[in-house]
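Duplicate of #3305? Posting structure anyway:
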């Protein structure tokens, strides 16, 4: 006997869809941040390997100036890449904050409509229960009147 239809169901679906989009975007930005962190870690490790190689070459006694210069140049390029990743991560942090705010707002909008739907459903069920109670009382009264009329 549940004939309840929420009048704002279309709006609720739109807001749930927006919330889901915010969740997906947040997940994507988090994944991007994780890949930036992994790339930064890889570059820092590679830079450290370059310096280790320069130190190893220095301990051998005979130093290749050209080889050392190339490794230093490469380590400077790696440092530039690390700094570039750090700048990208700053932007990613801003994106994460915006995504979290948008998700929070979208979630709040959905919850408001869901609470309204619950209240309207409860009111509908209360009215339906009252109607059924009145019909039962009317049927009982009619039967009682029929029995008294005999």
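Output from current build:
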């Amino acid at each position: 006997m549940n004939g309840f239809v929420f009048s704002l169901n279309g709006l609720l679906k739109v807001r749930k869809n927006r919330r889901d989009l915010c969740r997906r975007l947040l997940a994507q930005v988090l994944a991007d941040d994780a890949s930036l962190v992994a790339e930064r870690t890889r570059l820092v490790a590679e830079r450290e390997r370059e310096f280790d190689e320069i130190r190893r070459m220095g301990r051998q006694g005979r130093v290749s100036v050209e080889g050392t210069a190339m490794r230093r140049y490469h380590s400077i390029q790696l440092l530039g890449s690390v700094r570039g990743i750090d700048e990208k991560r700053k932007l990613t942090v801003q994106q994460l904050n915006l995504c979290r705010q948008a998700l929070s707002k979208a979630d709040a909008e959905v919850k408001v409509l869901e609470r309204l739907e619950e209240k309207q459903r409860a009111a509908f069920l209360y009215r339906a229960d009252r109607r059924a109670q009145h019909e039962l009382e009317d049927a009982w009264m009619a039967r009682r009147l029929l029995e008294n009329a005999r």
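Confirmed duplicate; merging threads. The first helix runs from residue 9 to 59. Residues 9-107 form one domain.
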